[in-house]
Amino acid sequence: MLGDFTYCNPTKLYFGKDALGGLNEELPKYGRNVLLVYGGGSVKKNGVYDKVREILKANGKRVFEDAGVMPNPTTEKLKEGVERARAAKADLILAVGGGSVCDYAKAVSVSVHCEEDPWEKYYIRFEEPSCEIVPVGCVLTMAGTGSEMNGGSVITNHAQKLKIGHVFGEEVFPKFSVLNPEFTFTVPRYQMISGIYDIMSHILEQYFSGTDDNTSDYIMEGMLRSFIHSADAAAENPLDYEARSNIMRTATWALNTFVAKGKTTDWEVHMLGQAVAAHTDATHGMTLAAVSLPYYRHILPYAPEKFKKYAVNVWNVNPAGKSDQEAAEEGLAAMENWMKKLGLVMRISELGATEEMIDGIVKSTLVMQGGYKVLTEDEIRAILKESL
Amino acid sequence: MLGDFTYCNPTKLYFGKDALGGLNEELPKYGRNVLLVYGGGSVKKNGVYDKVREILKANGKRVFEDAGVMPNPTTEKLKEGVERARAAKADLILAVGGGSVCDYAKAVSVSVHCEEDPWEKYYIRFEEPSCEIVPVGCVLTMAGTGSEMNGGSVITNHAQKLKIGHVFGEEVFPKFSVLNPEFTFTVPRYQMISGIYDIMSHILEQYFSGTDDNTSDYIMEGMLRSFIHSADAAAENPLDYEARSNIMRTATWALNTFVAKGKTTDWEVHMLGQAVAAHTDATHGMTLAAVSLPYYRHILPYAPEKFKKYAVNVWNVNPAGKSDQEAAEEGLAAMENWMKKLGLVMRISELGATEEMIDGIVKSTLVMQGGYKVLTEDEIRAILKESL
Known about the structure:
By secondary structure, chain A is of the alpha/beta class.
């Protein structure tokens, strides 16, 4: 039965080829000091950085920089960002980059005016912000995490070998996000494919949970069909604007809380993938790809009807004369073929994980309660070994 | 190609069996004077009115009433509502009822502080509000129009035989909406079925437009499959909470601007249906049902591929060995069977329209530009005659 929920998503999206012009509508709403946050410099190579600086200047902003946000933003970097934001007396944090940069910007935004250690407060004790929050805006250059329209913020603590996400409430959502599919044209192929699987996994991890008849599941089936089609088109031609548009748009809506409302969700694949990343620093989407099929094949017997539905409605499996289990397995086989053809990493050993690391990765894996099977430590170990 | 767009929907939804409790979170945000707007008294019979009054009292509000909003709210009633809101010095307009009541509340909200004639300003000249807007909240008791999470507001002018909708911007969207599927249990069957087709038509009129590969179309196919399934379940058992939940939720998301973003839309069925209603005062959803198939069969030859997609992905038509046209027609035949089984009105003559009225209805029908065929006056006449 559809559960009770509240829904509010106040983020304003500017989407399309001229989306950057939205900054001219948004910037006047905030004070003069802008902390410009970005990553390793790809935004300088593709020209987005220069365009953003120009618009900031035209709007009379005083710009402070915080560069070098890594793919898995660390507690050390977060500390640095908080210091920079404080020194700048930032009125707005403008994230220019992919999901990591947006995640990081949100982590800084709730920590600038907070005296406590943000890692302890938000990522260990999962407390809510009790201080002033600096508004965040995003200029997205990679489709994937959905961070541009939600409260998610994942931070990695290398000392503790933990990569943990806090899902903040709507007061931490970006106030606005600029989504120009053309900005994703220059994302290297490995990152693009990785982002594609991250998005796919976001949908699947919300889909594979619950036994009720829920509109969300039908909507996700539609999203998945569109997404698989567009992913193939983008892999064929990365400059296919229509395909990149559909991918970018689906990424945002897959994780802006919409499809999760009224239903349970799982997220165990993310827990497994994040644990792998904490030990290998591997690219997020690839860690998810490498653990997904061993996980899904492990939980399939606990929900064969749902996996059959997936096979039939997403992968066009003809169920005639097949048991639920058989149809379901055929769906996962179709998914496996698609993943391999797309060039996804199918084994965590290819990401640097070794047999010796398994015990550590098991320890780093959080166990979620919303999936079709709540995993034991032995099951986690078995899935990870299967993924090696 | 996915077009440029901006998206922002700030309405907060409280959904589920305990949704009315959301009023306790929302009411303190507004001043003391509340204009309570409702329709013909069904909210008194089903107890929702008493519950709302109780919560208003507990929150220390001074309540002013504006009852008797009709299914097609008129310019005369709008004038009365504006006077009542002015006399009450309303800080909040709380609409308790179906889409008509929400539509009407929005019309009042943009007219209270406006000196001009609202019909002329908003419904003839389609101007935007240039005055203070009184905030609106909704307690929904019927699923259908989506008015609870958008800026739409349809008003009827009997003297001019016109029923026209203005789609206001996000500043006119309800600040919050309370959606309890149980509140729709007592909607009479005729109204429930009518609402179901209104929702169906909202999705179809956005779906049947454009030739690009657009994620929205795939999402709408998913919504439609879920919706048809839930509509059948609700027709079978109106107290099926899961089905009524899915219907209520789909109604909201079908018309809260989400699926329309990045694509063209049509709305000619609504133009035809509203013209019929202006001459007969018939129930909204039934006017749409009665003109839909003649319209879709008329435009099918201009987009056989899209109608085939609809037949295959929504109605499970097997396209093997069939031309696009044949598969498409089979889809519309399946839809026709479903409509008849549901008990929808299939002819405008059953709604009071006569041969003699046709010329007048043709004159009242606005011609939209986004469909697969922009209709001529002769085509409108032919479709209406076919619908008789």
